[in-house]
Amino acid sequence: MFYDTRISIGMFFTLIGTILTAFGVATRDHADAYSKSLGIDANLWWGLVLLLFGIVALTLGRRGQIRLEKAPAGQQEPGNKKSRSPAAH
Amino acid sequence: MPNLAAADWLILLIYGFFMLIAGFSLKPAVTASRDFMQAGRAMPGWLCGVSMLAAGLGSQEVLGMGAAGARYGLADVGFFVLGSIPAMLFAGLYLMPVLYGAAPRAPRSANPPQATIRSIPEYIGLRFDQKTRALSAFTFAAMATFGAGLALYAMARVFVALHLFDRVADALHLPPAGALLLAMALPAALVLTYVMLGGLGAAMYNQALQFCLVMAGLLPVVLLGLKKVGGCNGLRAAVPAALLHEWSGAQHHHGVGAILAAVAVGLVLGGGAWCADFRLLQMPLAAKNLGSAQRAPLIAAALCVFVPFVLVLPGLLAVALPTPHTSILIHNENGAIVHDITVVPPAAEAGQGLVPAQADAGGQPVKDSGGHPVLDYTMATPNMLLQFLPMGLLGLGIAALLACMMAGVAASVTAFSTVVACDIFEPFFARGTSDARLLAVARWAALGGMLLAFGAACAAMRFNSMLDAVMLVFATVNVPLFSTLLLGAFWKRASSHGAFAGMVAGAVAALLHHGLDLPLGSQPGIHGGWIAVLHHPANQLISDLGAATLAFAVSLSVSAIVSTFTTPRPESELVGLVYSLVPRPPKRAIWFKRPEALAAAVLLVAIAVNLVFI
């Protein structure tokens, strides 16, 4: 079964966003760590942006996946796939 | 000291893990050869479009656009837009209806969905004949492995020059060449694993993720860099005005004639890439229906309006920033491994902004005949990453560089395996073989392709100047193929002998041009002039662009002339293979859902955006 890609993209960016945000919060007081990024806690802010992107992609992907499962075989050419339904997610 | 912290490593590991997930989770879905080679023809249009663009933005393109941004400024955005958007719109509107549904006449009724073409050489074989198909299959296979190898090497070289993985190399007691080999072998093994497991589907899923990652890694650099130089006004003050205009800057330097020549060259190159290169066209061919296949290049074109800014601005900002005088790139405290491409302080200081000068073996900046340092523009974007990203985000930036490299290499490997299995193995060695056998051949061909690519990368380690041959190979292989495909798909009269003669003549013309042309200041050899030097263009780029344009013109005219003197195939055999004989699908009732509407919108937005920066 070809799942909806937005799920894996969403999962990836949610995970990365969470890690960066957490790392940014933990290192907020380390001024020398952020001298490179002009004193901005870039991890925190960019982590939040990526988290938001990840959640949006995940939501869209979940909806797409439901639509994909509702219409099995109908979208695909007949006779091409035999055992498509219970595969990996 | 640019060593990676634990947070950076964690992000890199998660990235690698997600790449493998796609391979393993698609493995059960790959039961037939078409699942492997065409992702079951079940992909939505947006995914095909995004992965097509990601495949087109390999390591040389991403590094090269940063380099060109540092060198030519925003003019490179203009050149990229010109070289991609018209060709993509053309591919979506006119080429896809021909290619997507093309199938041999006879078996269509017997075996409907299985018979459509799987590759560009297969289309060439249907439209013309087997000899033209074999020629294009073999030249394409050679080009794909060569390109993948150089893409591996180009990015691995940057990683070594950044000294990011020195600690790993030291821990493993690797010699300097070993670090480079490791930086090539690890990503190559990762790509090979997911491609062999999940085929084109896994490659496309990952390319979509990789594209998002490239944007996520480079955008913060652009934002922080812009803040550092003081926004748009600061940028305007810091760099020469000519760098900030797409067209008028070039016009002042080279005149209107040069701009028109650039337009022609851009169209030829764009067509050679987006309308003929199977590495890119395999994605729309995997779409779930014709509408999606048409939408794929159009969506890629829509992204191409904005994406070049993200790739070019880091380079432009790199020259706008002050040149470092105590370089942050010094990294020789524990036993100094000096490599000939290592960026060391004298070379960085001789550079411009964050673009270092090329260093010779002793670490001193290389000077040209006028005494000016020769700049290593390739390092523009990577140096910006190191300069601005704090630990944590730096891991994301490095993952972005890895991602663009892997997206390009994966596209080459899947395309190679498809062409080897269905254009070399099936018709010439095992006609009518079973599908399971074809699937196995395609899988192992991916391994073979990656090994050949790795061999090419190792050769490039020995002979650095091979990197300059990429454009020549493109002009020799892809540009004549583009003209052949164009004639085949749109001119009923084009005959098989004409196509074959045109492809050969175009390739010979490109090679002859290369053999007779030598850029100023180069030695005869891989840079050209190996027959006799008749002409000295100003630089390598102009020489290569000349070769490409000449190859296109020669190929097109030879094909046309030979076709008029040979008998074409009867029209009844060409139904479904030539644009005028393709049955038209019923038009969608709602006008704004038609591909033409999307194409027109993309074109208008592209023109509007480019007018702002004229």
Your description of this structure?
The complex is a heterodimer of chains A (89) and B (614). Chain A has helices at 5-26, 42-70. With 89 residues, chain A is an all-alpha fold. In chain A, helix 1 packs antiparallel against helix 2 (42-70). The model of chain A is unreliable at 74-89 (pLDDT under 50). With 614 residues, chain B is mainly α. Chain B folds into two domains: 6-462, Up-down Bundle (Sodium/glucose cotransporter); 465-583, no CATH class. Chain B is built from 24 helices and no strands. The longest helix of chain B is centred in the N-terminal third of the chain and has 54 residues, at 176-229. The two termini of chain B are 40 Å apart. Residues 107-112 and 338-344 of chain B have low confidence and may be disordered. The chains are: A mainly alpha (89), B mainly alpha (614).
CATH topology term of the largest domain in chain B: Sodium/glucose cotransporter
Mean pLDDT of chain B comes to 83
- Class of secondary structure makeup of chain B: mainly alpha
Shape of chain A: rod-shaped
Question: How many domains, in number, for the residues of chain A?
Answer: 1
Count up the domains of chain B. Answer: 2
CATH architecture of the largest domain in chain B: Up-down Bundle
Q: How would a textbook summarize the main sheet of chain B?
A: none
Strand content of chain B: under 5%
What is the CATH C-level name of the largest domain in chain B? Mainly Alpha
Number of strands of chain B: 0
Q: Give the fraction of residues assigned to helices of chain B.
A: 55-70%
What is the alpha-carbon Rg of chain B in Å?
A: 24 Å
